Amino acid sequence: MALLQFKKREERAAPVSADVEAFLQGYSIEVMPRTAEKVEDFRALLPEGTRVYIAHIDGTPIDDMVATAKRLAADGYNVMPHFPARIIKDKATLADWIARYQGEAGVKQALLLAGGVAEPVGDFDSSMQLLETGLFDQAGFTRLHVAGHPEGNRDIDPDGGDAMVMEALRWKQAFSDRTDAQMALATQFCFEAAPVIDWANRLTAEGITLPIHIGIAGPAKLQTLIKFAVACGVGPSLKVLQKRAKDVTKLVLPFEPTEIIADLAAHKAANPDFNIESVHFFPLGGIKTNANWAIENGGASARPASAT
Question: What pTM was estimated for this model as a whole?
């Protein structure tokens, strides 16, 4: 059945751009336990070895997180759970989570971030504090990602600037330089390439060389994307959605990330040293919808193993 579905998609898909195919190679995607439960078989949707982030929303039991990690790891995916500092009570809790992910699902990579809650529930309020515990190094984690904000973050810089964000990035760069961990910046989602390119180039000029895994919102209803964009503080590129919302003919159609992906892919092809290394999808319109878009636009680089 999966092979038949893939052939049907292949028959109706437009020709794949070589630049886009190269750019989408090795993309990652994000799930939550409750969204993962709705997917019958990830192997019919995602390429073998895809890095799958598991978002840890406040209130999600750690048992559900670990069970999702175990399932994805058994299916052959590289699992990267979130560790949101502000919902972790203390160092003992952090150590327990690490041990459970490792012991039950073989996890050796993590996304460390402050988290979406306003007030910490315990001892931590930043990803830097999590790194400073040394627990990930002691547990043999080989890859640690941290958050990047191409359009700023008012939780960190309330005045709308980026002084504190840049200071945090310099700290994370220094941590990467003095440790063996493979590190990268996993960013918030954006809708326009120009601000992303400017931000990435600025990081290089500032001596911040951490590879960037750029956040991209997968296909979704326009109203859904605007809601998430406002909630997450997406700034300059939000005008792309607002402009589309004014066009009644496009209002009912799902928004797809075709333009921003094509623009970034072309820039990467023309500038091979450009510091965006990978695409990270936020499947706001559903995992299956996002995966199918990637298959149709990414060619062989996005093809699930069960479709070969």
Answer: 0.88
